[in-house]
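Why Glycosyltransferase? Reviewers of the renewal asked for a concrete example.
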Amino acid sequence: MEYLGSDKPISKIQPTVSVLVSTFQHVDFISTCLDSILSQKTDFAFEIIVGEDASTDGTRAICIEYAEKHPDKIRLFLRKEEDKIFIKGKKVGRFNHLENFKCARGKYIAYCDGDDYWIDENKLQLQFDLMEKNPEANLCLTNTLLEKSSGESAKPLVDTFSIKSPKELRNVAYLGHISSWFFKNDMNDFLKNKVTRKAPVMDVILFVYLKNRGKVISTPETTSFYRYNRNGLYRLKSVKKVHMERFTLNWLIFIYLHRNPALFLRNFTYLLWRYYLNFIK
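Here is what the prediction returned.
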């Protein structure tokens, strides 16, 4: 359900960029996230699509407040608990993420989960300009500050400018952080792919999909901040479980995305070696 209907000012314009925000139990973080997006300075119109996934901690009330205050920017979708689907026996918010993609009207999509935020008011303009100058590119990513459990920031993810082809990135499973990604809104094949409802995590399969459809621009400007959220779904998993999920991901990516046996075996061998070093040796 789209809060306030489809007669808002933002619904009457054609945005160039759609910013997707998925949020659940982010009462302490969502305001910072939305403020950082609203502060973007651009010479084009953009919409903010917020998918609120039936939180019980007050997140929904904050999202409603922002939607009422910014009807010229925000389209809020209030998901229901029964919308959630099960992956490997566990209820997850994948429906919310996928529906946000379906709602995007822009030529490009940017992404920021509700517990992360942007730290550069020129992020969207920077990436838009780079993508427009390089039409063969499908994805543009920047550097991201990664908060450690100690509160410190990790080393940069991206430190040089580059434009790489799918062939050059064939053996690369992931680059940057999803909070910095900016990509073409060419998502129909992705949304139809069964892997979106099977994979334990979505950002890895999304990266594989995007890198296979065009070049990837990496630029060293730091534009986003990944927050170490102790209550985030990823943080609640054990190290061993995360590692086992990577085996599952490798198989699903092979079956549904690249169909390259040599690449599958290469990744499987690497994961097996890492498993041995971490849990057996």
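The chain has a mean pLDDT of 94. This is the kind of structural detail the renewal will allow us to pursue systematically.
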